[in-house]
Amino acid sequence: LAKKEGRSTYRYHTEALSIAANERLVMETRLRHALTAGEFVLHYQPLIDAHSGRAVGVEALVRWQPPGEAIVPPGKFIPIAEETGLIVPLGEWVLRTACAQGRAWIDAGFAPLVMAVNLSVRQFQSENLAEVIQRVLEETKLPAACLELELTESMFMEHAERSIDTLKTLKAPGIQLAIDDFGTGYSSLTYLKRFPIDKLKIDQSFVRGLAHDPNDREIAATIIAMARGLKLSVLAEGVESEQQLAFLRQHGCDYYQGFLFHRPAPAKELEAWLREHSAQP
Ligand code: C2E
Ligand code: MG
Ligand code: MG
Ligand code: MG
């Protein structure tokens, strides 16, 4: 009996696995189609300067809009795009679209905004990343100083020396570099003093508990103090409440991002708000 059960359990697992594998294959095919069919869209979420209270930038966040279906958040397809390598062309599309939007806002007379773009591990590892970025900046005519790249700690885990070289190359034309989801990765803190980084983005998991969790308060306060000591700027992600904001303000956080200010939204929907809330040109 045990043997029989063992075998059926095994069969159950392989069936489950092949269903999962099949779903992934279907998803991969759909994503490839989505890229050529133009089904991806970018939403933009304001980045707020703590001193002026004004928007000084936006983060570009990709979404998938299959025709006639609900919009799909990036958590549902970025991991598959990353595994299949589709993230490289998708990431380039994101970069070009975001930079073109940044340029369009300059041309339309908006106050200067930094355009923050997320990079994936695969993109960061690709040989020609710096050239792709350079080409996109030339094509879209967005000044390099208006582009900020968001990286994650996991990108630096392997090949630290090579990562430093990559970062220096990326930074050379004046692009700014931020560490996204700071505090959730496994990297050693030594990279903070050795890597040419401009900004830390405190992960929203620490911001969430600011009103009530003493540990989150301690972690957020420590990251802000450390950033100041290292002369890095620091942004808090996922700011949703006035209490969280009060804590961050009291501790000298430089920038905020979160639903309290604005949700990620299509460019057109954001424009009226940006006219009211961005710095004077
Ligand atoms: P992220 O880069 O850390 O982006 C911030 C996420 O937090 C976004 O989720 C945003 O909608 C959400 N958020 C902002 N304010 C709040 C808030 O007040 N409360 C809460 N609960 N959430 C808030 P989203 O758009 O679903 O993106 C999730 C992740 O997907 C991003 O995290 C990023 O890692 C990845 N992603 C998004 N767009 C791209 C992209 O173009 N390329 C790559 N490689 N990854 C991307
Ligand atoms: Mg980000
Ligand atoms: Mg983040
Ligand atoms: Mg995050």
From TrEMBL:
<feature type="domain" description="EAL">
    <location>
        <begin position="24"/>
        <end position="278"/>
    </location>
</feature>
<protein>
    <submittedName>
        <fullName>PAS domain S-box-containing protein/diguanylate cyclase (GGDEF) domain-containing protein</fullName>
    </submittedName>
</protein>
